[in-house]
User: What shape does this take?
Amino acid sequence: FDFHYIDYNEPLKFDIIIYNQDGTWIDAYKERQLKKWLLKNKPSWLQVDQDDISDVMYWAIGVSSEMIDIGAYSGGMKITFQCLEPWAWSKLKKKKYTSGGSLNFNLKSVVDFDDYIIYPQIKISVNSGTTISIKNNTTNELLSISDCTVGEIIEIDCGKDKLKSSTSRILLSSWNKQMLSIVEGINSFTLTGNFSVDIMYRLPIRVGG
Assistant: This one.
């Protein structure tokens, strides 16, 4: 990972301490329950109930646990979590727009890293058979798909260059082979065609670690 000439090579790692508020031991039965809940065999989204990080999500996996004493509290448990990246993420941001032929709108993005590029996921619902296009005028990127049919739903992952149609048609010959990105600041978009679009993405957050 390399942002603005700074290397972030180590995934974010942090501990969560759990104890009974009445000061009693976490017994073997509760220990097993906690481990089943928090120590999974694959990463999942973790959110901490704390006001100043209420928008922070950790794509993490619990990697170890141990029983410890915390001050006057005996028999607490420490769980160590490791993220897949050196940072956390925002909650999923979702913007919906509907074009009846043409629509212009602005999308503002504020990112914790310099020069970070967001590659969103896009869901298009076609309202009339037509060629549709989405252009980010700020980056001069244009995504266009022809031969769309009424009711067709097209899902696009701009980060992985993947497209999928609900009609199971092969989109390669109808797509202009371009994807969209979002940069920090104001992004000016133009929709052309009769369709609705959901633009979804998460932002990297520099907290913890």
The longest helix spans residues 28-38. The radius of gyration is 22 Å.
